[in-house]
Give the backbone structure.
Amino acid sequence: MLNLEQIKDLAVKSPTKIVLLVIDGVGGLPRPDTGKTELETARTPNLDSLASRGTCGMIDPVSPGITPGSAPGHLGVFGYDPLKYSVGRGILEVLGIDFDIDRKDVAARGNFCTITRDGLVTDRRAGRISTEKNSELCRVLSDIELSGVELHVIPVTEHRFALVFRGDKLSGEVSDSDPQQTGVAPKEMVALSPSAQKTAALANEFITRAKEALAEHHPANMVLLRGFSQYPDFPSMDDIYKLNAAAIAAYPMYRGLARLVGMTVLNTGAGIDDEFKTLSQNYADHDFFFIHVKKTDSAGEDGDFDAKVRVLEEVDSQIPQLTGLEPDVIVVSGDHSTPAVLKAHSWHPVPVILYSKWCRTDNVKEFSETACASGALGRFPAVELMPLAMANALKLAKYGA
Amino acid sequence: MLNLEQIKDLAVKSPTKIVLLVIDGVGGLPRPDTGKTELETARTPNLDSLASRGTCGMIDPVSPGITPGSAPGHLGVFGYDPLKYSVGRGILEVLGIDFDIDRKDVAARGNFCTITRDGLVTDRRAGRISTEKNSELCRVLSDIELSGVELHVIPVTEHRFALVFRGDKLSGEVSDSDPQQTGVAPKEMVALSPSAQKTAALANEFITRAKEALAEHHPANMVLLRGFSQYPDFPSMDDIYKLNAAAIAAYPMYRGLARLVGMTVLNTGAGIDDEFKTLSQNYADHDFFFIHVKKTDSAGEDGDFDAKVRVLEEVDSQIPQLTGLEPDVIVVSGDHSTPAVLKAHSWHPVPVILYSKWCRTDNVKEFSETACASGALGRFPAVELMPLAMANALKLAKYGA
């Protein structure tokens, strides 16, 4: 397919509007007793109607067989090849907690862990300490002072925290201290490029000080760091697609991912109905909207088939509010599958509806995995979705003469 | 899609088992009088049942429109991009005769040919001499002595033989002597890289001596050499996929191809039933099995539609023995199509069944070209099959956070 530079050459500004509804982890697997997936079980008359009027298919978020994390899953549907545009683990961690990251910062993911007197790791998660204990210990670590750099130690949940160095001439090219196994000592962090020597030295100094500060806090008597990274410099959706794009997402991680590609993040309430209300209220001001529904994924990860069905039905009930706005293009899909029977993200392709006045309707009458698998869009990489949406919004000029 | 290094980063060892059944040349074309392909003609209740329980699609062994040889056909289904991982013709020739090739050896494919007194080639195949005559002449050529190198001249069939140089500092970077046309002289072989000068000199000396030795053996009074090559250094399936892979193949070529990717080659009888028995007997010892059925391809190449149908039915009768072992993942496909009406390998995509507990069953109820073309897997490159099999065996970790 065309790369983003080529897409950029074809993209034209126009008054048409695109709404991309990402139902996180929407794809599922059949429950053995009924033989039906979550989507096939849910009563979704509005999504089915949209599928009937649109054209359908299945997307592979990254490539067949590959289970995507949230970042590659979303970058794909935003039109950014997830094999080419990657987000470091440290950055992802701070995106997930709404930390106001700066382009010069370096972020790492931290784990509180347990070490023996000899310095060998016995538990990489410190017995999954409570989030409260985590907050307390992050305050202890925040008192560490390193010369020439501002330090942020931000609690996440259980044993996880984010570490941010703020200062000049920092680099994310630093190796992990996390040995990814027990029975060995944490690894010394080294610079993976000459320009990262300052950062590697700071990281090692931080670890030495953290060990002293945490000595009396068994089981959380040490920290492990990994995924040093800087905010990636992705071209914006405005730059590529000439879209004034807005994101409506109740969860920090997805607001962060939207910000990565230059979307304006709208304030919204936490409920699904709040998100659709936010869409209506801001509909006049943007020509592209990404709406993110999280709870399908959460229910899938919890293995709660029925809860996922209920969330799908709740999403369906909001569809008339969406279609009532009469966007020129509506895309409904997900960033990956999260089958409740697997209790995890999975590699399965994700059903997609593409609706527009010009979409060339197919025979699919239902928004489900089985129905969409026979849709006219076929099975295709998620990264091709944005060019299709743009085309259907008549926002892509002819390629070649 | 991800490259093998990226797949390697995601692959995890687990107790689940994968069986890959390759029915050589399985895809076909309809016989004009019935309108049905070989697969559609054959009674294959067991494969149909597997298709009903699995998810189906069509694979392109190399890419659409490309007719693959055996090596690219197999490398694709083993997950090695056949456009990136290639096997020299000389090496392929010795793989086909079970010759114990060494990594330092250089192999070439040889043809006995006919030349005039002036040295011009009049028949590149020496009138397709008998295999017996071939063996006799290979013994003559084996008496040639070249300094510093051990020589093996191994008959194949008719006019074809394999030439192997064994010694130090050899290289496969040598041009062909075969001019690929008649009326001209064989070409002098030249080193295509500086390190191949010794090998090119040896090859030219061999040709000079062979001409003398064969002078009285018209029509086979000369030889042509092509495809100089060394054993390729592919990453092993163990290295990439963390699989302890075993191959069950009655024909030398396919054992050789399996060895190229590091599979353990199991001893097996020549019959299809023998191969499935070998699977049962060794099932406990490996977590990946490649079973190769040759006779479908042979029947296709012979243009014997009915024979191909019978072989397919024979394969079908063995499927219960396979499913009875309850592998976590079963993949049934082929390395390419060999339609009896074409009497040759063809470019047509190949039907595939992917069965696992987590495969997300589609509506396909039959293992045939037409039925699989509407399967949920859609049409995809063969090289994506292994990541799918690995995912279904829960052997691939999440990509990205």
Summary: The two ends of chain A are 18 Å apart (CA to CA). The longest strand of chain A covers residues 106-115. Chain A has a mean pLDDT of 96.
